[in-house]
Amino acid sequence: MISDMNRSTNTQNETGTLFFKASLLILIIGMAIPCRGWSQSNPSSEKPIKVMLLGTAHLNNPGRDAINPKVPDVLTDQKQKELQVLRDSIAKFRPNKIALEVQQKYQAAFDSVYQEFKSGDVDTFSVGEFMSRRSEQYQIGFKLARAQNIDHVYAVDHYLPMKLGEVMEYAKQHDPEFVQYFKQYKNSHQVKKTDSLLQNSSLISVYRYMNCAESVDGYREPYVRTAAVGSDTTFVGADVVADYHRRNLRIYANLMRIAEPGDRIFMMFGGGHQPFLRPLLKNSPRVEFVDPMEYL
Fold first, then answer.
1. Residues 157-188: pLDDT tens digits?
2. Strands 153-157, 264-270: parallel, antiparallel or unpaired by DSSP?
3. Where are the domains of the chain?
4. Regarding beta strands 49-56 and 129-132, do their DSSP bridges make them parallel or antiparallel, or are they unpaired?
5. pTM above 0.90, yes or no
6. Per-residue H/E/C for 97-153
């Protein structure tokens, strides 16, 4: 009797184990099938939008950033030759649209300046913020667009001030370690390397360094450190970094508004935008991100 009960109990245990394994297998298969089904039932019929994002130094030394490398005069014969090499490298991407770091609200004025540029050089001009013949918008963006017979250059920036001063004032009283960190970052390897290349090497070498994966990762570090400044219910650092995130999200939104299937868009922004804009481009289902290192 006891033996029969044991056999019955064992049979029930085996049945229960088999049922559990079968149920687990069905659950796993059930989780996998919708993923395959979704990807197969929603194929993209649109051509991808290829976007090359080039991180840049501000060639006209505007002094608007927290860290401003000193750029040699790009109007010298030598630097003009180096810029031509850079533009020729980018031109191999064959862009049909150019998107630049000028506020979108100034698009009409930007169009007017570019049309004037196409008909003859312009020395200085104002499009919401000061620009000049030394700026990357002029030396790379405008000249590349004209060489590619592009009729229209897009302003896709959406400026929001990054109130780093508020962070520094708070940190002086509550987080002296951050103040020290920021001073040290200004003398970090990445900053010194960029400065050294600007002063002693060709411009294409500068752009190769600024756009390599290691440098792009390095640009993120000060934002991550800044976000931690604050205490209790005070999020002064996080709020300032959030504003910068918001700016980059709006830049991405502006870009998507001008993008059409099959476009090949050359986009150029200051190097500090890269760790924010690159993930948006890489994770967009409409975009095929093009690494500028393939052309530099």
1. 998 888 888 999 999 999 999 999 989 988 88
2. unpaired
3. 1-43, 49-294
4. unpaired
5. no
6. EEEEEEEHHHHHHHHHHHHHHHHCCCCEEEECEEEECCCHHHHHHHHHHHHCCCCCE
